[in-house]
Backbone:
């Protein structure tokens, strides 16, 4: 994907603040601190577009980033951080649920799971929700730089079994630090982001211009 522009568009704390223009969107979901904001930065090759924090659970908002004036990447609040109050958790849930359940231009959800650990109950709940939602999704095992390659197979099979993923669920091993999986994830994003007819056009285009290559 050629990134011509990447801008922070709005931080929404209420559904009324979601941007209006009907552009396709890809949302990033996962527990606090799993690496959602880092993934967005690494995908668009910017160091500080999305805020990367060391204090988990701080983000209570949805951040919308507009890319190439063409589509949006949407940084959802992290789930499963125990130290926030019940009231806060409630408002987080409401903001996120409203987004996930009503956003018509949402084309794909990227579900991030830390490759080092077995998925939590919250991760499993999210995975179950994704199955029943009917929204396309891709599971990313992130922070792959934190384990050796020899351990990939075991950790991935644990993730697949704990989340009960079906065989055809797209799955990417990702590292924002080493840029592993960037190209694969862009391919999946591009595939789901554009409608069938546009997809068809892109395929015919490829013969000539050689577009659609990840950078
Ligand atoms: N080693 C490593 N650390 C990462 C990676 N992605 C994120 N981190 C670190 O994990 C922490 C949380 O990242 P952040 O993107 O803010 O997570 P978010 O809360 O899900 O948005 C930060 O300290 C990041 O530097 C990765 O691919 N590899
Ligand atoms: Mg974040």
Residues:
């Amino acid at each position: 994907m050629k990134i011509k522009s990447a801008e922070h568009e709005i931080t929404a704390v209420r559904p009324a603040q979601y941007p209006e223009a009907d552009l396709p969107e890809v949302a990033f979901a996962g527990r606090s601190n799993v690496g959602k904001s880092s993934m967005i930065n690494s995908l668009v090759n910017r160091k500080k577009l999305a805020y990367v924090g060391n204090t988990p659970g701080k983000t209570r908002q949805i951040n919308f980033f507009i890319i190439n004036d063409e589509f949006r990447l949407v940084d959802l609040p992290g789930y499963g951080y125990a130290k926030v109050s019940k009231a806060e958790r409630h408002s987080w849930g409401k903001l996120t649920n409203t987004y996930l359940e009503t956003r018509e231009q949402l084309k794909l959800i990227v579900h991030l799971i830390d490759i080092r650990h077995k998925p939590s109950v919250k991760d499993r709940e999210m995975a179950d929700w994704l199955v029943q939602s009917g929204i396309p999704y891709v599971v990313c095992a992130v922070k792959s730089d934190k384990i050796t390659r020899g351990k990939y197979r075991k950790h991935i099979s644990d993730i697949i079994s704990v989340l009960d993923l079906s065989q055809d669920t797209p799955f990417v091993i990702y590292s924002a630090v080493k840029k592993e999986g960037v190209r694969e994830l862009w391919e999946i994003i591009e595939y789901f982001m554009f409608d069938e007819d546009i997809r068809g056009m892109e395929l015919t285009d490829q013969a000539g211009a050689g577009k659609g290559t990840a950078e």
Remarks:
- The domain at 6-209 is CATH 3.40.50.300 (Rossmann fold).
- Residues 36-37, 59, 75 surround magnesium ion (ligand 2) (CB under 6 Å).
- The first helix runs from residue 36 to 44.
